[in-house]
């Protein structure tokens, strides 16, 4: 009897220990890191993606997010993900100092692409047609390609209705648009976006090339009177990636969940960015700004000037393993051959 009691006690203890121990078939936890806060439009898309992955994997994958730059740095995230600092994270190859020259430069090849979905599709066709683009991301598995809202022209006192109206304006512009504004007779200025509001308020600059969501997000509608939809072309680039080694360590069915999640992530980001642009425009109208819709002819002239500058820059890319001129021509042909309202489709024959 005592032996039976001892066996029962031993069994109970074993069961108790088993209940406390982690399950061998428990969820795989993947870390996700971004430099943005949880409320940013990018992060809202990230949250949708997390929800999809955990649901589609039936709980076998769990994503642990690290927001606001708490795990990855803004300028070294590609290297950090390769080395396992985070399993998955936001990457910005267009801003790294070296190693992604083609990826950065190709974002200037998208004149005529008018939607975020078109931008993403053009990038994927370029990456398929020009393998050196993908080689710049060796060691990473891309999980999302990011486009963006087209920048317009926000000005303090002078409306912009055509490229000619840029002459004489002192505008804050991204580094990649310095040559364009200079070619149009403007005075391009580089400064952090956080300094644009006080600079416009004091008249230090006349305006800024930026997407319309900045009217509300940065309160620029309080110091500007005009918003022009003379759109500066912009492209897409890989923006969320996972360590290739970590990806390959997962079971094939969970790899498929992550690959399938790409469309979910991209769709949610496009939706959130579109909502942010509408909110910014509404904020501007609410503050009495004049909204200027430029003519198709004005936009075409602006795009032509943009392409002239881009063509000169593209000729310098050959040293990085791909013809910049060929990449530019490919992207422009792809955009020109896509009927309005139809999705961009990669041609069957590659260059």
Automatic annotation (TrEMBL):
Q: Which GO terms describe its biological process?
A: transmembrane transport
Instruction: Report whether Lyase shows up as a keyword of the record.
Output: no
What InterPro entries does the record point to?
DctP_fam (IPR018389), TRAP_DctP_sf (IPR038404)
Note one Pfam family from the annotation: DctP
- PROSITE patterns of this UniProt entry? PROKAR_LIPOPROTEIN
Which UniProt keywords are given for this protein, alphabetically ordered?
Signal
Query: NCBIfam families annotated for this entry?
Result: TRAP_S1 (NF037995)
Q: What is this protein called?
A: ABC transporter substrate-binding protein
């Amino acid at each position: 009897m005592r032996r039976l009691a001892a066996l029962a006690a031993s069994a109970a203890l074993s069961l108790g220990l088993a209940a406390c121990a982690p399950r061998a078939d428990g969820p795989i936890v993947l870390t996700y890191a971004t430099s943005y806060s949880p409320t940013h439009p990018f992060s809202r898309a990230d949250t949708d993606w997390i929800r999809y992955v955990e649901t589609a994997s039936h709980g076998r994958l769990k994503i642990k997010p690290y927001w606001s730059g708490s795990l990855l740095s803004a300028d070294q995230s590609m290297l950090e993900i390769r080395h396992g600092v985070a399993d998955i994270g936001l990457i910005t190859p267009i801003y790294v100092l070296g190693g992604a020259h083609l990826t950065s430069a190709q974002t200037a090849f998208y004149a005529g692409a008018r939607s975020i979905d078109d931008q993403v599709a053009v990038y994927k066709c370029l990456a398929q047609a020009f393998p050196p683009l993908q080689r710049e991301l060796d060691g990473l598995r891309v999980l999302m390609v990011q486009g963006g809202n087209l920048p317009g022209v926000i000005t303090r006192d002078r409306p912009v209705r055509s490229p000619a109206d840029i002459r004489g304006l002192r505008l804050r512009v991204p580094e990649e648009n310095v040559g364009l504004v200079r070619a149009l007779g403007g005075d391009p200025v580089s400064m952090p976006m956080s300094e644009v509001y006080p600079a416009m308020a004091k008249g230090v600059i006349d305006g800024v090339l930026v997407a319309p969501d900045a009217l509300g997000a940065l309160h620029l509608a309080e110091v500007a009177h005009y918003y022009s939809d003379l759109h500066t072309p912009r492209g897409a680039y890989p923006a969320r990636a996972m360590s290739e080694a970590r990806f390959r360590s997962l079971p094939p069915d969970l790899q498929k969940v992550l690959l399938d999640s790409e469309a979910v992530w991209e769709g949610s980001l496009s939706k959130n960015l579109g909502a942010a642009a509408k909110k910014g425009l509404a904020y501007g109208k609410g503050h009495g700004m004049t909204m200027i819709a430029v003519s198709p002819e004005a936009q075409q002239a602006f795009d032509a000037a943009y392409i002239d500058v881009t063509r000169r820059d593209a000729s310098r890319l050959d040293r990085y393993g791909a013809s910049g001129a060929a990449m530019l021509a490919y992207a422009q042909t792809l955009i020109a051959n896509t009927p309005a309202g139809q999705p961009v489709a990669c041609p069957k024959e590659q260059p």
